[in-house]
């Protein structure tokens, strides 16, 4: 059996998330149907991140075992011919048998996009949170600095059974602007449920002046979700890249 790694890009708008669910259109089900059509063997795919409904990906990493002898370039071409246009395979690679898309991930990078223009652009609707109030990104960056490092992030986790720990290490958090689009980029060794969306909602309150910059540190120390800002909608969230320790780069 070969262990195949895929890098995927998808528009999550019309998918009910990554994970297979009976009767619903999901990325996992759609991908596995395409692989079945190519190899005549039903695969079991594993993703580095089980993205939620409406969340997009620029660099989702998936692995699966297959008896197929097709060369990677044939798999790439065939899967893209079988898949719908809102789900693309960007790369196919043979990996060692031990490679695991989830367990070997050292860090993940997410981007949250906010449209803060005075008029909500119809072209940004599917891929951003439209707030209609100008954000102060300098204040957001200063406030967000409190979140960098190793902390208990339970204030930024939607109520969900977390059986291990809420402690994560944020390696980088930066807010940038391009015209009316604000990008929040966060890289960490792992993320809690809705963590990036909660950070985006919390920093947005600082950006519009509803809360002071020092408030974000207070929220972090409180370790209570009710102390933080809102959970931003899924449509602005993108999984950008997953870094693995089992391969170069």
In short:
This protein has 249 residues and is an alpha+beta fold. Helices cover 21% and strands 31% of the residues.
Which characteristics define this entry?
249 residues, alpha+beta, Alpha-Beta Plaits, 2 domains, ten-stranded mixed β-sheet, 5 helices, 10 strands, 21% helix, globular
Q: How would you describe this protein?
A:
- The chain has 2 domains: 2-103, 2-Layer Sandwich (Alpha-Beta Plaits); 106-243, Pseudouridine synthase I, catalytic domain, C-terminal subdomain (Alpha-Beta Plaits, 2-Layer Sandwich), CATH 3.30.70.
- A hairpin with an 8-residue loop joins strand 2 (46-47) and strand 3 (56-66).
- It has helices at 27-39, 72-82, 137-144, 195-207, 215-222; strands at residues 2-10, 46-47, 56-66, 87-95, 105-115, 129-130, 149-152, 167-178, 181-188, 237-244.
- The relative contact order is 0.19.
- The longest helix is centred in the first third of the chain and has 13 residues, at 27-39.
- It has 249 residues and is of the alpha+beta class.
Number of structurally distinct domains:
2
Tell me the name of the CATH class of the largest domain. Answer: Alpha Beta
Q: How many β strands by DSSP?
A: 10
The coarse overall form would be globular
Which CATH architecture of the largest domain is right? Answer: 2-Layer Sandwich
